Amino acid sequence: xxxxxxxxxxxxxxxxxxxxxxxxxxxxxxxxxxxxxxxxxxxxxxxxxxxxxxxxxxxxxxxxxxxxxxxxxxxxxxxxxxxxxxxxxxxxxxxxxxxxxxxxxxxxxxxxxxxxxxxxxxxxxxxxxxxxxxxxxxxxxxxxxxxxxxxxxxxxxxxxxxxxxxxxxxxxxxxxxxxxxxxxxxxxxxxxxxxxxxxxxxxxxxxxxxxxxxxxxxxxxxxxxxxxxxxxxxxxxxxxxxxxxxxxxxxxxxxxxxxxxxx
Length: 263
Hints:
With 263 residues, the protein is mostly beta strands. It has helices at residues 35-38, 107-120, 150-153, 220-233; strands at 17-19, 40-49, 52-54, 63-66, 71-75, 79-87, 90-93, 96-98, 123-127, 130-134, 138-144, 157-165, 168-170, 177-180, 185-189, 194-202, 205-213, 237-242, 245-249, 254-262.
């Protein structure tokens, strides 16, 4: 989720780049694979593209979300979206639309290899919680992600009560809030500035697809808190809910702890 671009991620299909599908290859399909076998949120475990390994850095991940209505979504460096068709174990992906956010290397190279491989996929297999996509010279092995508890997460008013940095937890000034609505929009406060945006749920993560803040200066004592909260929000975060507590986490060990305060 780390990015070098200062601008926030824009919505899918807004100012997007087109990625064309490849020619594919001859793969023996598994006719037993149906729509219920592929639907879900998946994370890339390993992959190869034209004989070269696709190696995702430890603090990144590549996700693929396949819906029952043939829609595709996910994130490598950028958020992307498109469609897929499944027929008797044969699967094909459309050209993908994606946001335009610069990321650190090697993630830009990983993203390019992943999308090149996805465009060449022609067959799919399901084994337990693993999904394998294959083409003539590509293989993508993905693992099923557990679902985010949407009912508890969405349409609940949360108030921020802790800033998390690895094992260290610090208190919060004021009562900054957060609300993730079921319509895919979000709103909240850092304690200094209000923010709003849009999000999608992909497996056990919330991916923030757009984020904007009010334009105002923060008091000196709130500047670091404001930056910290927005740093966790930008791009997205993992979610854990226990009782009336909500924890948002990043791969670098930073996070935000909230408690529920009602609707």
